[in-house]
Write a structure and sequence with these properties.
Structural class: alpha+beta
Radius of gyration: 16 Å
Shape: globular
Distance between the termini: 47 Å
Number of strands: 6
Number of helices: 6
Order of helices and strands: HEEEEHEEHHHH
Number of domains: 1
CATH class: Alpha Beta
Length: about 180
Amino acid sequence: MIEAATVDRWLHELELAPLERAERDGISSWDLRLDGRRRPDVRVTLILDPATAMFLWVHYAPPLNDSFRVSYRQLLRWNDELPFVKFALSDDDRPVLTAEIEVHGLDRESMGLALVRLLAVCDLTYERAVVWLHPGLKQPPAMGRPSRQAALFDRFGARVGELLAAAVVDEDPAPD
């Protein structure tokens, strides 16, 4: 059984410092702020239910204010195109990006790989999401600094190379 202290150790070994940690009814969570290679300050919550799985939850964008149909169609398309992750809408219409690791396959390597995969997807979809993340801009702003997770990408990036090198082709124009 994976315990919260084990995840604390893995985060430390991967040089990831939680902003906050909570525990309730045997479920533990960690809030992180991580950088992709292009997209800075991605909020990620890790939730460990020791009986079932670790859930990785990216707060992908603020609540959607645009044409819901267009945005929803884009999220569904990404669900079809991108492996091992799923986009959804939270109760407040905020797009979220999720991944899950079953407890029997959970270790430091699978957690690190899942985090890099989520960050790579955030980078890959950054151009398309600019209208949600930076209203009024046509292109995402440059990060302006090196990624704080460069070591994480160095360690796991080769295993998600298809995401790092790929480009999602959109058939629809960016949502307004």
